[in-house]
Predict the 3D structure of the following.
Amino acid sequence: MSKVFAPYRYDFVGSFLRPESLKKAKADFKAGIITQEQLTAAEEEAVRDVVAKQKKAGYHIITDGEFRRTFWHLDFMWGFECVAHEDTGSGVQFNGELARLDDVYLTGKIIAGAHPFVEHFRFIKQFEDENTAAKQTIPAPAQTFQQFVTPKNIERTRKFYPTDEELIEDIVAAYRKVIKDLYDAGCRNIQFDDCTWGVLVANGSVERYGKGADLDAIKKKLLKVNNLSIEGKPDDLFINTHICRGNYHSAYFSSGPYDSVAEELFGEENVDAYYLEYDDERSGGFEPLKYVSGDKKVVLGLITTKSPVLEDKEAVITRIHEAAKYIPLDRLYLSPQCGFASCEIGNKLTEAEQWAKLALVKEIAEEVWGV
């Protein structure tokens, strides 16, 4: 078992740009040209390659690049029983672009069977060594809760769950099973990817939960479903969270500082670390970090994945020290603000530019922390 745990002083969120060979294999499978077995072989080859590149770049936390997924969050939800999806050509409006997402809805009560992500982890675990640990990224329980209580889905959801409390109870049970199965498969690093808090910080976005929704009540429910899912985890299992405001083809969904959610998110959510989007003015300042409780860590997402332009190293270092006014430097870490391909479409940069971004993250961390 690896003795490396996330976050590492220089780190990344999880997803990588899909190589052309994998894109072709997926298109061929969809067209009926190749079999599921051939697609799986192509996925495994691509994962081996991206892991090798992660290690060559000097990184100690590895992922499978989320190469088996179409969407960062929805594919995980499909792994539960009674969760259906269809491509209706619709989506969610991002800044200047429609994010094409499948409709995902309930056909019954949520049950966790043998979740495919556990098998995905078993494959990536083989690449661990004494200097390298694999982490498994999954959407936060709050993200799954939000999916089924939006105005678009609530009528269907109420057929099976008359109240939010009943829905939360089953989501928690399903997540606890997946977390246990991941742990039994040797996983010691789980990352909850969570856009729900990044949505709440935007003006008027609470109405995503329905007209007249109460902000404080929503925050309590998000905390409850996340914390109950974590409750009782083994001491040697690290569960961190990544907070984002949307990341689709270099477009964003929402804007707003952390201030309105900081006390609950940073003070009361029982995660071990926060990977926080901080790559531009949309995220506000660092003062909300004063609410980070206990000895929890903060990974500053100061390098953007939305643009190929490399950040000024000295400017990033200055921002790290500004954040250190609110949380000790030894509890701060560095990463890009989000993945490079939260959805299959990927962001607007090349693979070479992607690795240049990660080289910069490592270079800055070595200069600031001497790692």
